């Protein structure tokens, strides 16, 4: 006959098992198979290079195999959709950035994921700033010169962007609104063709990510830098004037980060975040990212989530005001 004490003990054990269910449900021995890191852009660009660096570092820390899978299309939406729909077991993660997580949801109709519900932010990798570049054949020597000309002759000065809703499109419109001027927008399919037309003199200026190639253009006199979106002087390349010195509070900084599908066990997310932090502390991390215009800026998943919330609110309001629709 079962005693009262045995019944109470069994009930207590059942209660403990229920309370600790999510912990016990964590896959034993993770990682025990290959981890996929999805990059929602084609191979060869900065995102791809950064993902491969992080994949190698995480693989070393975890003693696992991490492969990079490029799934481009729809400004990163297709690749991030695959991440969102993956089994949340820690074997599929993705590289997202301010565009995929805070811009696309506001400019693409019927986007197949909610960036706040479909993903768990794992860690921020880096930040990037832009520099306002003009064709040197133009007479403008400072940002004040450019804005004065735009006020004198509205909608005559042209600027290029990587496309409707791209980060440099939004940065330029933020500047225009702050200065009370109007430019003529010429959207391209990416930074490269816009830069080509800037060099050829077919457009007047553009915001470009600071990189070694941008520095070379400036040094050779092929392009002229008027200002940067860097937040503080110590982050300004070559002492280029800050836009925030003219317009206090101006912010147009981008970021990249790693995301996992919603429901990924928190213990796995924590281990991934720790492995990423260790990777970004390696001696060659800084030079690897800086070569393409990015700055290593590790932040926890919680901090990245807060950055996403702020950018979603600010950029969403700007996009609605501009009535941007990339479809």
UniProtKB/TrEMBL annotation:
It holds the Pfam family TctC. PROSITE patterns: TAT. It comes from the Bacteria. PANTHER family: BLR1237 PROTEIN, TRICARBOXYLATE-BINDING PROTEIN. Belongs to the UPF0065 (bug) family. This is Tripartite tricarboxylate transporter substrate binding protein. It comes from Bradyrhizobium diazoefficiens. The lineage of its organism: Bacteria, Pseudomonadati, Pseudomonadota, Alphaproteobacteria, Hyphomicrobiales.
């Amino acid at each position: 006959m079962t005693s009262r004490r045995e019944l109470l003990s069994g009930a207590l054990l059942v209660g403990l098992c229920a309370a600790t269910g999510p912990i016990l449900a964590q896959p034993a021995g993770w990682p025990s198979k290959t981890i996929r890191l999805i990059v929602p852009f084609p191979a060869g660009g900065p995102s791809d290079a950064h993902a491969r660096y992080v994949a190698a570092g995480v693989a070393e820390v975890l003693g696992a195999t991490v492969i990079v899978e490029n799934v481009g299309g729809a400004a990163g939406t297709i690749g991030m959709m695959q991440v969102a729909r993956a089994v949340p077991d820690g074997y599929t993660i993705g590289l997202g950035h301010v565009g995929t997580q805070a811009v696309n949801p506001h400019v693409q109709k019927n986007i197949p994921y909610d960036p706040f519900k479909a993903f768990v932010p794992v860690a921020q990798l880096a930040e990037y700033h832009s520099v306002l570049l003009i064709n040197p054949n133009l007479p403008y020597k400072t940002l004040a010169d450019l804005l004065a000309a735009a006020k004198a002759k509205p909608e005559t000065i042209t600027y290029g962007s990587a496309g409707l809703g791209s980060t440099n499109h939004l940065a330029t419109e933020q500047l225009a609104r702050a200065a009370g001027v109007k430019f003529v927008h010429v959207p391209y399919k990416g930074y490269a063709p816009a830069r080509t037309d800037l060099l050829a003199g077919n457009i007047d200026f553009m915001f470009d990510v600071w990189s070694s190639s941008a520095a070379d253009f400036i040094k050779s006199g092929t392009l002229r830098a008027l200002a940067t979106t860097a937040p503080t002087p110590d982050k300004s390349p070559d002492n280029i004037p800050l836009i925030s010195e003219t317009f206090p509070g101006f912010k147009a900084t981008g970021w990249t980060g790693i995301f996992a599908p919603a429901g990924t066990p928190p213990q796995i997310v924590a281990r991934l975040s720790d492995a990423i932090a260790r990777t970004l502390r390696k001696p060659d991390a800084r030079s690897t990212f800086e070569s393409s215009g990015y700055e290593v800026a590790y932040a926890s998943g919680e901090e990245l989530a807060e950055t996403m919330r702020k950018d979603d609110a600010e950029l969403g309001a700007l996009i609605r005001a501009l009535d941007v629709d990339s479809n």
